[in-house]
Amino acid sequence: MRNKILFTVLAWLSVWQLSAVTYEEANALYSTEQFQAAVDAYEQLADAGYASADLFYNLGNAYYRTGRLGPSVLNYERALRLDPNNDDVRHNLAFVRNLTVDRIDLISPVFFVSWWRACRNWLSPDAWAWACICCFVLFLGMLALYLFSRQLVWRKTGFGVAIAAFVFTVICFCMAYQSKEAALNTNEAIVYQPTVTLKSSPDNSGTDLFILHEGTKVVIRDSLGEWVEVRIDNGSTGWLPASSIAQI
Asked: Which residues, other chains included, contact 26 with Cβ-Cβ below 8 Å and sequence gap of 6+?
C-alpha cells in the first residue's frame, strides 16, 4: 500500500515537472520566433489539463503570429474568461477582431445590463469571493460592536456599518456567482474554419443563409447530430457543422 502511494506521488511530481519544463520551453520557442512549435507546445499543455490566463494569452499570441485568426480569438476569449480584467488580453482580442472579415452589428443590451456586466468583469470570480468574505467578516465585527458596546455613538456606528457591510456582502456574492457562471458558460464558440455556410436546417440540403468567416463569435442554441444551431451578435440564426467551431 505504501509503495502504491509513493508511486502515485512520484508520478504526479514527474507530470508537474514535465509540465513546468514544457511551459518554459514553449515560452522559449515563442521568444525565438518558432511560433508553430510554440503553438504545438502550448496546445500540449492545454490538452494535458493545464489552464491559465497566461497560457491561453500566449497561445493566442502564437496563433496570431502563424496567421490563424480563429484560434487566436478563441484563446484570447478563454484567457479573458479566466482573467476578465486583463488589459493586455482585451487589447489583443480587440486588435485581432478588427482583422476578421465579418463585421456584425451588435444588439446593444439595456444600459443597466451593460453596467452590471462591466461591474461583474471588474474582478475575477476568486477576487469577488474574497471581497464577499471580507465584507461578511466586517459585518460580524460591526454587529458585535452594536450588540455589546455600551456607548451610544459606537452602537450607532456599528449598526450603520453592519448594514452597509451586509449589503456589500450580498452584492459581492452575486458578483462572484455570476462571474463564475460566465467563466463556466460553454455555449459560446468561435468559428474555427476559414469559411462556413450557415444553413436553414441541420443538413447539407438546407438553404444557404449566409457565410461566416474564421474568428467570428457565435452562441450555440441547439444541437442535432453533427450539426449545431447558432446565433450571431445581430440576432441571426442558422445551422452549421459542429466541427467548424470550437467552444470557448
From this structure: 38, 41, 42, 45, 58
Report the amino acid identity of residue 16. W
First to last CA, the chain: 41
Contact 145, 155 (CB under 8 A): yes
Mean pLDDT to the nearest integer, 118-133? 84
Of 88, 188, 65, 28, nearest to 76 by C-alpha is 88
Q: What is the mean pLDDT of residues 66-91?
A: 90
For domain 188-247, give the CATH number.
2.30.30.40
What pLDDT digit, counting tens, does each position of 9-41 carry?
A: 444 444 444 445 478 888 999 999 999 999 999
CB-based contacts of 146: which residues, under 8 Å, 6+ apart? 155, 158, 159, 162
Question: Quick count: other Cβ atoms within 10 Å of Cβ 206?
Answer: 15
Our separate counts of H helices and E strands in the chain read 8, 7
Please tell me the pTM assigned to this model: 0.66
Smallest Cα–Cα separation from 129: which of 178, 80, 77, 185? Answer: 178
Question: Hunting for cell 467552444 — which residue is that?
Answer: 247
Backbone CA torsion sign across 56, 60, 65, 71? positive
CA dihedral 191, 226, 36, 62 (to 10 degrees): 30
- Answer whether 29's CB lies under 8 Å from 38's CB: yes
Class of domain 2-97: mainly alpha
